[in-house]
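TICKET: design request
STATUS: open
ATTACHED STRUCTURE:
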């Protein structure tokens, strides 16, 4: 029982080690290969007609920042 746990832990540790080496060499983040939500026709993570208050605040903040950046002189 304990040897199975140790073997599984070592395999998992080896997997993470190899992933980190791949990231260090390629400098590219791990990403999905299936296209994610775009395949389903959903263009954004929150596809609600009426977003929640937290989402509305984030959207308003990003619009405000975009306007500030657009009107910035320097």
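STATUS: resolved
RESOLUTION: sequence designed for all positions
ATTACHED SEQUENCE:
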């Amino acid at each position: 029982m304990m040897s199975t746990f140790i073997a599984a832990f070592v395999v998992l540790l080896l997997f993470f080690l190899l992933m980190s080496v791949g990231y260090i060499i390629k400098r590219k983040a791990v990403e999905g290969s299936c296209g994610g939500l775009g395949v389903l026709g959903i263009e954004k993570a929150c596809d609600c007609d009426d977003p929640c208050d937290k989402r509305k605040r984030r959207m308003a903040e990003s619009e405000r920042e975009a306007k500030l950046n657009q009107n910035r002189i320097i």
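CLOSING REMARK: The chain has a mean pLDDT of 80. Residues 2-26 form the longest helix (25 residues).
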